[in-house]
Amino acid sequence: MARLTVNSRRRCLEPVSLSPCAETVLRRISTEIMAKNKQKGKKHQNVFQVANKQSKPKSKTKPVKSSLKHINTLKQEKVENLNQIFSEVQRDMKSVSKSTAKESTGKTQISREKVQESVNVDGAAQLFSQL
């Protein structure tokens, strides 16, 4: 088998004769090199396709606007409900804080009055002796 080499002076291809052993070695090396360059898993895609055949099944489009409007209305309703609930909680907290403030001032006054009262030790001793 004759190989072609490039002659740099003439810029043309010249045939080169090789021994049969060298040719087999060259064939093995060239096939190994070509096999290494192949990419695994990549399939050859045809340039021409059948007109009626679809390569990938197309997914059906979904109505985006209507679903977004539905989601937005649900969110608005939830936000309104939460706002009402939190406003009621704030009112309750204000009323509770006012009532506890009144009660706390009353309790402190009562405790001062109890401290000011003198203890009747003689009466307690008589009641204790009756038991």
TrEMBL record:
InterPro entries documented for this protein: RBIS
Location of the region described as Disordered in the Swiss-Prot/TrEMBL record: 36-68, 91-116
Stored Pfam families: DUF4665
Domain of life: Eukaryota
Gene Ontology, cellular component aspect: nucleolus
Organism, scientific name: Hemibagrus wyckioides
Gene Ontology biological process: ribosome biogenesis
Name this polypeptide is given: Uncharacterized protein
